[in-house]
UniProtKB/TrEMBL annotation:
Keyword Transferase: yes
Family annotation (CDD domains): PTS-HPr_like
Protein name: phosphoenolpyruvate--protein phosphotransferase
Family classification: Belongs to the PEP-utilizing enzyme family.
Ranges where the PTS EIIA type-1 domain occurs: 24-128
Enzyme category, top tier: transferase
Organism superkingdom: Bacteria
E.C. no: 2.7.3.9
Family matches, as SUPFAM superfamilies: Duplicated hybrid motif, Enzyme I of the PEP:sugar phosphotransferase system HPr-binding (sub)domain, HPr-like, Phosphoenolpyruvate/pyruvate domain, Phosphohistidine domain
Length: 840
């Protein structure tokens, strides 16, 4: 045997048969792996090579050995013999046992097997073929333990290196930083990254492990915040996989733990053991899933049962059916995604598409098919196994994903069963009641008829709840089960904010709600009607109200809602979740499209790439950092990798003639950074021959910059205050920390004083100041910001009309007094109390 060749000896005495001739497409088409078959005359299966028993099938008809070279060799006695459920098979070894070449593994009763109508043709295949460059099957009659039945040539592979691969390499323990652990999104990022490696990769926590290439398997491990996990990789690129994946885990798997987390809400949600209960017999309580009020009538929604046959036609046909249904489901999801305006919410269905390719789900389904089940039966087993497993987990976020697996599972099942999705015929003013609604149901609700919904399952973090919020439908999850007994047509008031459902409300109660709704609707309509008028205070101070955006759609929406420009284009969207950097052409195209959407009269502030640390880029490997928020992020990263910055700046400059374009650098902490970045802008501008007047400004997110704003103002054209980060760095509180969400308050007097300092320094040199952090969209904070002298508010797109309307109601002189007053207060709570007293 040469160093790159492995000989597998015949595991049985008998005739060697090419694998392609096995009368079972699962083997003949090498779906399980490549190898040979033996038509045996002996009845004791022996080890074809030394190794470890990796898996012994519970029916004892199949066994997998892990060889010292890291090969997994499956020995499968007979065809369809799994159906015998162990009858006629006797295992002679146990899982985990080391065996030597020729050692007896399984004894079988060939006569009994044949009497039961099964073939005893035995297969020997390698299931991790990425390590094998050539299969050289023997031929003729073979003797057990003596005749080579299959010779394998390995990829590269000196034996010394192979030895460590065989056992798999194990990383050091990594602490999971994600506040909610490895829930669906980070699990998907991790699985996708793992899939780029050939090695077999596992996540190991204590005695448990999961397939790192399978989202459902990772979620099933229920990895929590601060859990210590290791990566085990076996294969040719094990070392590289371990390095990249441990770094990815350490950095949060691309999860931005900062914005978007409702203040004051812990992000790790443990499933409530006992459901809330009301003492008022007319009120049923649950958890608020989506705010708002609705008055309507009960309409119960029941899930249809999808029937499928258990027995399949033949494995090849069933496998094709499964593949076709998976393909079709993927297309349906693509269509559904295009109907959802909010790209963030459309991602929910991208995750569903990924589930369709999940290796662990497919493994169960394909092995069901190979055991003779119909594609529908095997697929249902696969997705219900995983959904049930997840539903039992303690973590509400992970348990909530069971509903997603059932949703996508039923979508495929319907296609396999040839049944159409039953169309819901919903009456007017319906309040839907169900045990569970799926994300697909929710996304396709008829908004002209459905006013709200309540489900006994799910929680505030479920995808259904997220969709309900984006569709603006009041909703309750986890409501008392008694709701399922309410007959159709019963009048109810659904309070999505409080999480209550009131049955049989009095006329007066209904009227009160209708009045409230009418007032709110009038206010919204007025705000919309005046959205395109400027935001000028009663005493004549104009404030620019512009949009924070993350792409072209939001740019267009912002203009429609009266946005006077874009105060912050978070350009990260172009860089994240891809394997290579966006090209200059790609970027020029998208910046130009956004600039055109705004036109030449509106301002467009493009913030240069703000990643690193907590938001890693796969194509810019960075060493892991102890404190990513204090590490190489924002402008520091760009100056350390100037080619990325130069490419982006060239693309921005090329779009310059199309609007009032501004360049803004993030995370500026020192003057040197500003000077270096400005010099690069000047060089690229000259090289391109761009003559347009492109303003260059900085974000104020670091206290040093706020304190020294007067000095900075001499060298930049404008400031925009990122209060999300400024608060984090001023108070030394992680902006995404679940326990500090309440204290990390941008209305802390310390932060307000830094905003005031920034404005003073900027105005001393005639430079303007915007605020683009979260408080600019908070109606409570707006009077103070105006009083401090902020010139521009860059707000979330939906908030544009209401913030403009609010500015028009204020008097700048009153705001100045108010700001002077609150700047003297000692705590954020005092500031909030004072501002709330004015809002009442
Ligand atoms: C901020 O820090 O306030 C800000 C607007 O930037 P980001 O939220 O993108 O970090
Ligand atoms: Mg920031």
């Amino acid at each position: 045997m040469s160093s790159q060749r492995i000989e597998l000896l015949a595991p049985l005495t008998g005739l060697i048969v090419p694998i392609e001739s096995v009368p079972d497409p699962v083997f003949a088409q090498k779906m399980v792996g490549d190898g040979v078959a033996i038509d045996p005359t002996s009845n004791v299966l022996a080890a074809p090579t030394g190794g470890k028993v990796k898996q012994l099938h519970s029916s004892h008809h199949a066994i997998t050995l892990l060889t010292p070279e890291g090969l997994e060799v499956l020995l499968h006695i007979g065809l369809d013999t799994v159906m015998l459920k162990g009858e006629g098979f006797k295992a002679l070894v146990r899982e985990g046992e080391e065996v030597r070449t020729g050692q007896p593994l399984i004894e079988f009763d060939a006569e009994l097997i044949m009497k039961r109508g099964k073939s005893i043709l035995t297969e020997m295949v390698v299931t991790n073929g990425d390590k094998v460059s050539a299969y050289l099957p023997g031929n003729g009659f073979a003797r057990v333990g003596l005749t080579p039945a299959l010779t394998l040539e390995l990829v590269g592979g000196a034996p010394s290196a192979a030895a460590s691969v065989a056992e798999g390499q194990l990383s050091d323990a990594v602490k999971v930083p994600n506040p909610t652990g490895l829930h669906a999104r980070p699990a998907a990022v991790l699985a996708n990254a793992a899939k780029t490696y050939k090695s077999d990769i596992k996540l190991v926590r204590g005695g448990d492990d999961a397939n790192a290439k399978s989202v459902v398997s990772i979620m099933g491990l229920e990895v929590k915040h601060n859990d210590e996990i290791k990566i085990k990789a076996t294969g040719p690129d094990a070392q590289a996989a371990i390095k990249a994946l441990t770094e990815l885990i350490r950095s949060g798997c691309g999860e931005d733990c900062g914005p978007g987390v409702p203040a004051g809400k812990p992000k790790t949600v443990i499933k409530p053991v006992v459901k809330p209960h009301s003492d008022d017999p007319d009120v049923l309580v649950g958890v608020s899933a989506s705010p708002g009020l609705a008055v309507g009538q009960i309409f119960q929604v029941k899930q249809d049962v999808i029937e499928v046959r258990e027995q399949g036609d033949n494995a090849e046909v069933e496998r094709r059916r499964l593949d076709d249904a998976l393909k079709e489901a993927k297309q349906q999801l693509e269509a559904l995604k295009s109907e959802i305006e909010d790209p963030g919410k459309a991602e929910i269905f991208s995750a569903h598409q990924e589930l369709l390719a999940d290796p662990d789900l497919l493994d169960i389904a394909i092995s069901g098919v190979s055991e003779g089940k119909s594609a529908g039966f095997a697929w249902r087993k696969a997705f219900t196994t995983y959904a049930d497993k997840l539903a039992k987990l303690q973590n509400e976020v992970l348990a909530g994903r069971a509903n997603d697996i059932r949703d996508v599972g039923r979508r495929v099942l319907r296609l396999l069963a040839g049944v159409k999705e039953a169309e819901l015929v919903v009456p007017d003013n319906a309040i839907l009641i169900a045990e569970e609604l799926t994300p697909s149901d929710t996304a396709s609700l008829d908004r002209t008829k459905v006013l709200g919904f309540a489900t006994t399952g799910g929680g505030a973090t479920s995808h259904v709840a997220i969709l309900a919020r984006s569709l603006n439908i009041p909703a309750i999850c986890g409501i008392e089960d008694a709701v399922l007994q309410l007959p159709n047509g019963v009048p109810v008031i659904l309070d999505g904010t409080r999480g209550t459902l009131r049955k049989n409300p009095s006329e007066a109660e209904v009227q009160q709600i209708r009045d409230k709704q009418a007032t709110l609707a009038r206010k919204r309509a007025e705000e919309q009607a005046t959205a395109h008028q400027p935001a000028i205070t009663r005493d004549g101070t104009r404030v620019e109200v512009v949009a924070n955006i993350g792409g072209l759609d939001e740019a267009k929406q912002g203009v429609t809602l009266g946005g006077e420009g874009v105060g912050l284009l978070r350009s990260e969207f172009l860089y994240l979740e891809r394997t290579d950097a966006p090209t200059e052409e790609e970027q020029t195209q998208i910046y130009s499209d956004i600039a055109k959407a705004l036109g030449t009269t509106r301002t467009l502030v493009i913030r240069t790439l703000d990643v690193g640390g907590d938001k890693p880029l796969p194509y810019l490997p960075m060493p892991a950092e102890e404190n990513p928020f204090l590490g190489v992020r924002g402008i520091r990263l760009c100056l350390a990798a100037p080619e990325i910055l130069r490419t982006q700046l060239r693309a921005i400059l090329r779009a310059a003639p199309l609007s009032k374009l501004h360049i803004m650098f993030p995370m500026i902490a020192s003057l040197e950074e500003v000077r270096e970045a400005k010099a690069i802008v000047a060089e690229e501008k000259a090289a391109l021959g761009v003559t347009a007047d492109v303003k260059v400004g900085i974000m104020v997110e670091v206290p040093s910059t706020a304190v020294m704003s007067e000095i900075f103002a001499r060298e930049v054209d404008f400031f925009s205050i990122g209060t999300n980060d400024l608060t984090q760095y001023t108070l030394a509180m992680d902006r995404g920390h679940p326990k500090l969400a309440k204290q990390a308050d941008a209305l802390h007097p310390g932060v307000l004083r830094l905003i005031a300092m920034t404005v003073k320094g900027a105005h001393a040199h005639g430079k303007w100041v915007g605020v683009c952090g979260g408080i600019a969209s908070d109606p409570l904070a707006v009077p103070v910001l105006l009083g401090i002298g902020v010139d521009e508010l860059s707000v979330s797109v939906p908030a544009i009309p209401s913030i403009k309307a609010l500015v028009r109601k204020l008097n700048k002189s009153d705001c100045v007094k108010l700001a002077n007053e609150v700047l003297q207060l000692g705590t954020a709570a005092e500031v909030r109390a004072r501002l709330a007293s004015l809002a009442d």
